[in-house]
TrEMBL record:
One of its GO terms (cellular component) is nucleus. The lineage of its organism: Eukaryota, Viridiplantae, Streptophyta, Embryophyta, Tracheophyta. GO terms for molecular function: RNA polymerase binding; transcription coregulator activity. This is FF domain-containing protein. Keywords: Repeat. Residues 25-79 form the FF domain. It comes from the Eukaryota. It comes from Pisum sativum.
Length: 102
C-alpha cells in the first residue's frame, strides 16, 4: 500500500477523534455553565476571584482545564449582562407605552 492510501485511511479516523474530543469539550463547557447557573448567587457583578473558591469541590469545576474556567465564567457573566440589559430595555419600553396611554 502506498503512503497516500494509508494517509487517506487515517484522515477519517483523525477527524472522528477530533469531533469526539470537541463534543466532550462542549459538554464539559455546558456543564460548567450549568454549575454557575445553579449557584444562584452569581450576578453580572460577580468576580471570578471571589466565586472560584466556592466552586472548587464541584466535579464540573474540576473537569475543566484551569485556563478555560475563567474564560467560561466571563462568558457566562457577559450573558447575564446581556439579559439584564434586555430586561431593562423591555421595562423602559413598557413604561414608555404606558406613558403614551395617559
Amino acid at each position: 500500500m502506498t503512503d497516500s492510501r494509508i494517509h487517506c485511511g487515517l484522515l477519517p479516523l483523525k477527524k472522528a477523534a477530533e469531533e469526539k474530543a470537541q463534543a466532550r469539550r462542549d459538554a464539559a463547557s455546558a456543564s460548567f455553565k450549568s454549575m454557575l447557573k445553579e449557584q444562584g448567587d452569581i450576578t453580572f457583578n460577580s468576580r471570578w476571584s471571589k466565586v472560584k473558591e466556592s466552586l472548587r469541590d464541584d466535579l464540573r469545576y474540576k473537569s475543566m482545564k484551569h485556563e478555560d474556567r475563567e474564560f467560561l465564567f466571563n462568558e457566562y457573566i457577559s450573558e447575564l449582562k446581556a439579559a439584564e440589559h434586555a430586561a431593562e430595555r423591555e421595562t423602559r419600553a413598557k413604561r414608555d407605552e404606558q406613558e403614551k396611554l395617559w
